[in-house]
């Protein structure tokens, strides 16, 4: 029976990402009910078969009652997930505003730090401490920058997400561990919590890296890989001190990670990496550029035309290390604020971890779906969600947050 259920879940994963995520949420809800809910185990509950058989608890009315309760709890969990998604959409603008404010405060603090450094140096020189003055002029800027950076990522969840992603993408498990430990220490001042946070973040990143390398050619392999990433997420948050709710949330994130990566690979034939492009963007709408790459065709070999009836580039034939963020254009030197891929602004944005991966996925999706106008812009957010969910950033952020919260929990107990 369990193998059949796993096969159904895996099949849904391949066909519909959102449905698959909802199925996992529902499955987890049933597991939680089975493991943690006293009524379902009590005599008359639908899971206490032995007691029911001995005491007649399996009456039709009771079965209906208990089943309705289970379905209600599952529906509530699914509704909560949908609400969380809507909340995230509403937070998108707020996060951008917070990031801008935090960045502004960072620059302001940096400017003030220069004045503080020079003022301190002048005082040391007047006190006859010339060597000290020279030393601190060289080292104080680093100290101030580190302090200001900690304040910035604390003030803005978006900047924190970017920093977490950058640490993982370019530093691997060691980078994840170092950043988690640093942030935990800066926010709690607790060395033991910082070390714990770093160890768990590093182990989580390494575990996910191993799972990402597992084969996924069959339904069984997809199921095993999905459950493995889900287990890593749940275990990491549990080890960090998270409660039942937080562990379930991390379990879902872990499952979604593999599903998102599979969806991404299915669309692009590439893995999510998160690295910034190393080459400039190209004018994809320029006929001379189009001829350098393959034309997008369907399974029958028929070209998939855009809304204007023109052939389109199969993005999979393009290298991903060129900049893809922005709107396609035939202008190789687009103006700064045009929003075109070849503009300097968009090429700068593409260097944010995972954004170029997102654009690569979105460009292929847009071409296959023959999107135009507002459709292209409205689907950027879903493409971003798929790409970010397919990274270890959400889980590692949750691990770090749980460890930081342990400081408050300790204080409340004392």
The general outline is flat
What is the N-to-C order of secondary-structure elements (H for helix, E for strand)? HHHHHHHHHHHHHHHH
What proportion of the residues is helical, as a percent range?
Answer: over 70%
Beta percentage is under 5%
Walkthrough of the structure:
The protein has 414 residues and is mostly helical. The chain has a domain at 287-389. The chain contains 16 helices and no strands. The chain starts with a helix and ends with a helix.
Could you outline the blueprint of secondary structure elements for this entry?
Blueprint: H1 2-15, H2 17-36, H3 38-41, H4 49-55, H5 60-126, H6 130-155, H7 157-188, H8 191-212, H9 219-239, H10 244-268, H11 287-290, H12 344-349, H13 355-368, H14 374-378, H15 380-389, H16 393-413
Helix pairs in contact: 1-2, 1-9, 2-5, 2-10, 5-6, 6-7, 7-8, 7-16, 8-9, 8-16, 9-10, 13-15
Structural descriptors:
414 residues, 16 helices, disordered N terminus, flat, single chain, mainly alpha
Describe, in short, the structure shown:
With 414 residues, this protein is mainly α. It is built from 16 helices and no strands.
